[in-house]
Amino acid sequence: MSFAALLSGCGGGGAGADEEGPPVGTQQYPAGFWEGTVGTGAAQRTMVGFVDGGADGKGGEFYLARGAAGAAGYDGLYGLLRANLTAVQATGVTYFSVQDGKFATGLSLRGTASSSPATGKTVAISGNYTSPAGTAAATGAPTPFKLNYSKLNDYPARADLIAGTYRGSGVFGGQWVFTVTERGVLSGRVGGCNVQGAAAPRSPGSALYSVTMNLTGDESSCGYRSSQQTGVAVLRFDANNVPNGIWVLTRNSIGTDNTFVLNGLADPRQPTTPSPTPLSAAGNWAGTLTLPAGVTGDLDIHGTVFPDGGMFFYTNSSFNHNVLYGRLIRYNNDQTTNRFVTANDGVFFDRLLDGTGDYMGGYVSGVLVDATVESAAADGIANRLTGTYSYPTQPGGYPTRFVMQPDSLYTLPARRVGQANVNMIAGGYRMAGSSFGGHQVDIDIAVDGSITGVTSNQCLIVGKLLGNLAEGRQNLYRVEAFGFLDNPARPANFIGCELSSGPSQSGSAAAIFDANGEVVGLRILAAGLFQSGQRAHTVFVGTKRPAP
Fold first, then answer.
1. Rounded to the nearest 5°, which phi and psi values hold at 311?
2. How far apart are CA 52 and CA 36, in angstroms?
3. If we measure between CA atoms, which residue out of 210, 246, 206 comes closest to residue 229?
4. pLDDT tens across 154-185, in order?
5. Strand partners, 486
6. How many CB atoms lie within 10 A of CB 321?
7. CB atoms within 10 A of CB 426
8. Ordered DSSP codes for 134-149
9. 100-111 tens-digit pLDDT
10. Beta-ladder partners of 510
11. Cβ pair 61, 37 in contact under 8 A
12. Lowest mean pLDDT among 361-370, 374-383, 468-477
């Protein structure tokens, strides 16, 4: 069970509890987020949680998370709690033990609440809960706890505060990550499950956020598919009052009994430049990657986004490329937003996976790309693309972050604006074999857009370069019917073109310019898919050959 921990009941009292007299003192109001300890001696653990004030402020739902033995995550207990003057009591409490994944029900919790002499506000709750019999957390006797009113209550919830990305790990290596937008939309992954939901301020003046999480996925990777979770979240803050962590406590409202206690860190807040108008992500981009902790690999990223959202990015290496492609759409189809996500068709090619035949590399589908376009320019043109890409089997368990800017190598020179057409890039181009699986590639572009070429292992190349996609204002061209054919005139000592069995590909092309605005190279990025599921892609970055 990854980091999920279903909460189960607490019991309280102990011998003589029924003989206690009526409560005395001033009425206490226990609503808020609480932090403290549970247990004694070597068995003492941290405890956090919340109490809802209910309609009269005297109590309602509560949810406490207890650090489990052996750093196994968090046990939990939840139910309904009420304060009668200073006496706190909850019956019918549920307890979940993360060590063995078992529940105990019918526990009770009893304690005493006290207030600050200076403010009169409830600031402490101490008591005990009965043993969760039948679970690994059972002790045979009531367990004491002491809670203090958390400083986190001093940060009233706001939609702009919780907006960001949070991630953490849990039991048995489980990983989770999700992003919350300023509109309160929550999306990400918990273990092998996709998560969609919402997070919004719970009530005026409260530090708590109401959270919903709907879990989906296939049977093999998402054991909690179709579960609908509800609960609360509270943010943690650094010395500069910037959110740097989060607690999320949820339990199922629909589906198999389960609960999640998520204790995570916030990604560093990236400076953003909001745009008052929708921006286009179209263009040629380049930037850097931030890999999950403990993961090594390529740290650069380059590529193209079409006006219609088609995207193709790749990393450089000494022999091959990792590739990310698919289609970006505006989040929730909201044409006013500058947030883009993949339309369930993101694909990642990992050059280090086992491939077929003599080729290394494998494809992973269902990749989630979550990106935001920004602009700091007076002309309102996008000049920053940030976000993440992720998939359940991703090395390190976390999304990979990227930050990109317009690629100066592919920026259309001022004197070329309005003149970018097929004729401008007609000519021959060569890509060294060290970057194309060990085979040199020559490609020729005719003035009518016809693409022909040959590889050093005798594959013929065909395709069609269509006109400029932005009426000559951007360095973007569409490529169609791109593919490889077996050369019937190949020498007898060549085995033929293995790439000829692949699907027809489509994608983009862009010219490379020197400092004088002259075309000195060409890039073609394309991918294809057979109905059978077989995929293929091409990354060609060649230098212009002198005219014969």
1. -135, 150
2. 17
3. 210
4. 999 999 899 888 888 754 345 788 888 878 88
5. 459
6. 22
7. 16
8. TSTT--SS-EEEEEEE
9. 889 999 999 999
10. 523
11. no
12. 374-383
- H or E element, residue 6: none
The SS3 assignment for 445 reads: strand
Which two three-digit tokens encode residue 409? 């190598």
Q: Which amino acid is at 373?
A: V
Work out the burial of residue 56: count CB atoms within 10 Å of its CB; fewer than 13 is exposed, 13-18 middle, 19 or more buried: exposed
Q: What are phi and psi of 24, to 5 degrees?
A: -130, 165
* Helix/strand/coil for 159: helix
> Is beta strand 384-390 parallel, antiparallel or unpaired with respect to 535-544?
unpaired
Locate 537 and state its tokens: 């892609």
Q: What angle do CA 298, 303, 306 make, to 5 degrees?
A: 155
The answer to whether residues 369 and 326 touch, using CB atoms and an 8 Å cutoff, is: yes
Cα separation, 111 vs 13, in Å, equals 8
Cα 494–498–500 angle (5° rounding)?
Answer: 115
Q: Which residues contact 408 (CB under 8 A, 6 or more apart)?
A: 286
Answer whether 89's CB lies under 8 Å from 81's CB: yes
Range of weakest confidence among 8-17, 31-40, 203-212, 339-348? 8-17
Mean pLDDT of the chain: 85
Q: How far apart are the first and last CA of the chain?
A: 66
pLDDT tens digits for range 424-469: 999 999 998 755 556 889 999 999 999 999 998 888 999 999 887 7
Residue 215 pairs in a beta bridge with 195
Beta-sheet strands, E only, within 446-548 = 450-455, 459-468, 477-486, 505-513, 519-529, 535-544
Unique residue bearing structure tokens 């376009």? 373
Collect all residues with Cβ–Cβ distance below 8 Å to 43 and sequence separation of at least 6: 69
Closest to 476 measured CA to CA, from 467, 464, 486: 467
Residues 6+ apart with CB under 8 A from 205: 156
Amino acid at 533: G
Q: Pick from 280, 319, 320, 325: which is nearest to 303 by CA? A: 325
- Identify the burial level of 262 via C-beta atoms within 10 angstroms of its C-beta, where 0-12 means exposed, 13-18 middle and 19 or more buried: buried
Are 479 and 526 contacting, i.e. CB atoms less than 8 angstroms apart?
yes
| Residues written for the chain | 548
Name residues whose C-beta falls within 8 Å of residue 488's C-beta, 6 or more positions apart in sequence: none
Strands of 53-170 (E only): list them: 61-67, 74-80, 82-84, 87-97, 102-115, 122-129, 143-149, 164-169
Specify the amino acid at residue 309. G
The one-letter code for the residue type at 218 is D
* Closest among 321, 317, 296, 250 to 49, alpha carbons compared: 250
Side chain identity at residue 110, one-letter code: R
